[in-house]
Amino acid sequence: MLAASTLCFTFTVIMGIWIATSAYRGKRPLKILLPLHVGFAIVGATFLLIALNRGDQRLMLNVALAVAVAAFGVIMAWSRRRGYVIVPLFVCHVILGAMFYLSLACFTLFPKF
After folding, report:
1. Domain ranges in the chain?
2. Where does the source fall among the domains of life (predicted)?
């Protein structure tokens, strides 16, 4: 389950980088990217919760980080719909997402970590 979660979040990261670089260039990303980004994140979080339910207690930090990343993403999307671009929200979403992904990758690649 942990490997499946890492794979889903790898796709989420790739799509997030694509969305961010498109926004940085001033272009609109493909319309399908945002729903896919969110969808893969939800599926990855589901696999993460299944792994946690199976007794892998070291993933509690990852669950907390996933909730924080999702909260910043939701707030960012809500403010974007209202016409605001709040850069600190984006920066927090990216930094917490990177911390989450690195931690998850370490737990997946190094089981004794």
Report:
1. 2-109
2. Bacteria
The rounded distance, in Å, linking the Cα atoms of 93 and 56 is 25
In Å, how far are 7, 21, 58, 104 from 14, measured between CA atoms?
Answer: 11, 11, 25, 15
pLDDT in tens, 20-60: 899 889 888 888 999 999 999 999 999 999 999 998 888 89
Q: Which residue has the tokens 């969808």?
A: 39
- Which are the contacts of 44, defined by CB distance < 8 A and separation ≥ 6? 4, 5, 6, 7, 8, 9, 12
CA 56/CA 47 separation, integer angstroms? 12
Q: Which residues of 63-75 are buried (b: 16+ CB within 10 A; e: fewer)?
A: eebbebbbebbee
